[in-house]
Amino acid sequence: MTSLTIPEIFQSDPEILGGTPVFTGTRVPIQNLLDHIEAGDSIDQFLAGFPSVRREQVIAFLETAKERLLAST
Q1: pTM of the prediction?
Q2: Does domain 6-71 have CATH number 1.10.10.10?
Q3: Cys-Cys crosslink for 36: which of 4, 41, 50, 73, Cβ 3.0 to 4.6 Å?
Q4: What is the average pLDDT across 49-58?
């Protein structure tokens, strides 16, 4: 279970990349993480390319997505 709240994990603000969901405090779209995972990259590889994103945010995002997916089944 994550200790971060949704606003600490990601945000969507029309002033940042036109409202694209990004990791809070960055301009890194959530989609970038999903693209890296789809390509078979590790979390460490993603973080190496996007050092402004914190590991805690990535883990919290994945945990939140899992919880929401499993809650809907």
Answers
A1: 0.90
A2: yes
A3: 41
A4: 98
